[in-house]
Design brief:
Length: 358
């Protein structure tokens, strides 16, 4: 790296510094790195596939890129949440100073077989139509059922979001296991218990974020079938935006956050009050507007009738000729010497036919 000398100080340009670091990194050996795959991004028009390896123990992250053709050739069908071993070497993109791990190979680690089983289950349930049963949510539910953990932050967040948005909301909370081997059965029992309450019109199934393993109960086939077969609509508010357990697909609606769940199950009280005030104002003005509209229609009809009346025609300079009490419409109806009566817009007179013209 070339430096510029300023007195006793050597100063490197950004380009020189990045180039030197990149050259130094290129001398490091290729290594295997283990982590959880997140933020997987792949597009047909991109030359590379990008994802992040996250250390589940402390959240440390490493940006990874891999040539798309090389990635596709592995046929891994990786999804977010899987653990993987990635073989490659560190590199620095000199222009932007971006550090990343250039992957040469990727292998599943730990959950690969389980993920493949989940994918098979997903295809099976989709073929049965379990993911196509979305029903409309009630506009004003009589009571909202909430299934969540007994000490979960998700419970507090959903309750706060719903009651803040619509204070009159009535809720019944079913606390249960939301993690571990007993969770799926416990949640199924909670769904059945809430469905047994006559005025529960919608159920929110809520759990905060967690690792892939933590959210596995929400992809249990028994629970997915219970959600799809529930007599009332279910809103799934499980995990974060990037998490997609199978209950999300079987539920009638999915909420990525507690505030979204609140918007789905209750109306906004402030918005309702505003709309009621607007409706009240319209009702107050409605009789006057109705009278004005009818008066305008009556005036328009009166104008049309006046324009079509015979007297209006006479006012414009025309006349009505009668002979023997009948209106004369053609010269062939009278003969020379016939006495006729002529009506004008104002008054009239008698006349005698002298000659005829066709």
């Amino acid at each position: 790296m070339e430096a510029v000398q300023y007195g006793d100080r050597k100063v490197y340009s950004v380009a020189a510094f990045n180039r030197g670091i990149a050259e130094w990194l290129s001398r490091l050996p290729s290594v295997w790195v283990e982590g959880e795959v997140t933020e997987l991004r792949r597009q047909e028009r991109w030359a590379s596939v990008f994802f992040t390896l996250k250390d589940p123990s402390d959240g440390a992250c490493l940006s990874v890129s891999m040539p798309r053709r090389q990635f596709d050739a592995l046929r891994l069908d990786l999804v977010d949440g899987e653990r993987a071993h990635v073989y490659g070497r560190p590199e620095l993109f000199e222009t932007r100073g971006d550090f990343r791990f250039r992957a040469l190979s990727v292998e599943r680690f730990g959950l690969g077989d389980h993920l493949a089983a989940l994918e098979r289950l997903k295809r099976k349930l989709a073929a049965e139509g379990l993911f196509e049963r979305a029903r409309p949510l009630p506009r004003f539910p009589r009571r909202i059922g909430l299934i969540t953990g007994n000490d979960a932050a998700a419970k507090r967040d959903v309750l706060t979001a719903i009651t803040t948005r619509f204070p009159p909301a009535r809720l019944v909370v079913a606390e249960t296991y939301v993690q571990g081997p007993r969770a799926a059965s416990a949640i199924i029992e909670a769904i059945a218990a809430l469905c047994g309450i006559e005025d529960v019109d919608v159920i929110v199934l809520a759990r905060g974020g967690g690792s892939f393993e933590d959210l596995l109960p929400f992809s249990d086939e028994r629970l997915v079938r219970a959600v799809a077969g529930c007599r009332v609509p279910i809103v799934s508010a499980v995990g974060h935006e990037q998490d997609t357990p199978l209950t999300d697909l079987a539920a009638d609606a999915r909420a990525s956050t507690p505030s979204v769940a609140a918007r789905l199950v209750v109306p906004d009280a402030d918005e309702l009050r505003e709309r009621l005030e607007q409706s009240r104002g319209r009702l107050h003005r409605a009789p006057l507007l109705t009278v004005e509209r009818k008066r305008a229609r009556l005036d328009a009809a009166h104008g049309r009738l006046r324009a079509l009346a015979p007297t209006a025609t006479l006012e414009r300079g025309y006349a009505i000729v009668r002979s023997g009490g009948r209106i004369v419409r053609g010269s062939e109806e009278v003969a020379p010497g016939t006495t006729v009566d002529v009506e004008l817009g104002r008054g009239g007179f008698g006349a005698r036919v002298e000659d005829l013209r066709e």
